[in-house]
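Dear colleagues,

As part of the handover before I leave the project, I'm documenting each prediction I ran so the next person doesn't have to rerun anything. This entry is a single chain, and its sequence is reproduced below.
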Amino acid sequence: MTRSRYKIFETEYPYFLTHTIVGWLPIFTRKEAVEIVLEAWRHHQRESALQILGFVVLENHLHLIARAPIFPRS
């Protein structure tokens, strides 16, 4: 389920994002799980101009400082 109440309007500044795991399960203790997240970020860097300025992956959540242009919907 997505949270549509969060909208990004300012694109010139980076955003601080926190992602948590349901139930705070420690899934990021496995290298394979972390690699899935990193590969997804790499894909978005190539395909949608995501700029990652910093991140930290902890055992049950992660933090990301990033920005990306907003493309008009067609």
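Residues 15-67 form one domain. The mean pLDDT is 86.

All the best with the project,
I.
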